[in-house]
């Protein structure tokens, strides 16, 4: 019981307790709802198991407070003879009483909150790929990966299973450390493959189940189908059943990340053609207006007026036209005196 609680602590921060007719169910789920674990202890597991008929009790509590009751697993096996769990309805407390050697009693009254039934929907019997092995095989395999590794990828064929660390597509492949192990089918107690698929899931939850399975000596069964469907890790005994349901990455997850990243990148602004044409016309007009020429024809001021009036509104064209008439009057005055240099207008 203590090992199951420590294993559930690797999943979530809350422990869901639900006494049922078919046994005591201990469940936990992580904050993102991507990992779920459940241990069901049959009534035959306990020396005495009684629940009131017609009364349904479900609660959740902080899993750290329950861990404090079963703090040291080594000392529990040596000093504790039995554990008594009962509900104190008057104080609304769940009482854990440890009967230790030499008549020593340790009592923990833990507060709880009412909750709904927590149950994941999965069907492990319908999975295409089923494997069963001793916990030591997977423990020796996982120990090659660093503790900081978050996800692993499992690929299968008819005679092989490959387990490697998952590397994001966006990361630099030349700087990433790649670790891959190959397991033959004869190393498993049961090896059945109907679909050659690869699934990627979190390694933290797998480590939690391996610790429990290795300490109890129960074989581990792995069920999975295709990417995006959950992978189920299971340990089963005559009086105990444990299931870990883990979410897997889908095939198009990386493709969606790339599309999302491209969608978030704003497109470059279109070139301002109007501004470029206006500046070019202005520079051309400047060059032609300051170019020296004979006083008889005068400076080509009308060219400037024509080039600029095409990009001005009607009111601006009217003002330009009046300004051009004034310039023509000035040009007539300028032609009267040929010795005087022409005025330069911009």
Describe the structure.
With 346 residues, the protein is α+β, with helices and mostly antiparallel strands. The protein has helices at residues 2-8, 63-69, 73-79, 135-142, 203-216, 253-264, 273-290, 301-309, 314-336; strands at residues 14-20, 23-29, 35-41, 59-62, 80-88, 93-100, 105-110, 113-114, 129-133, 151-156, 160-165, 180-184, 190-192, 198-202, 220-224, 231-236, 240-246. The strands form 3 sheets. It has a 10-stranded antiparallel β-sheet. β2 and β3 form a beta hairpin. α1 runs antiparallel to α5, α4 crosses α5 (203-216) and α7 runs antiparallel to α8 (301-309). The termini are far apart.
List the helices and strands in order.
HEEEEHHEEEEEHEEEEEHEEEHHHH
What is the molecular shape? elongated
Radius of gyration: 40 Å
Distance between the termini: 95 Å
Arithmetic mean pLDDT:
78
Largest sheet, if any? Answer: 10 strands, antiparallel
Q: Give the helix/strand class.
A: alpha+beta
Provide the low-confidence segments as ranges.
253-271, 288-326
Helix content estimate = 25-40%
Q: Strand fraction band?
A: 25-35%
Query: What is the topology, as strand order, of the major beta sheet?
Result: 8-4-1-2-3-17-16-15-9-13
Total strands: the figure is 17
Number of helices: 9
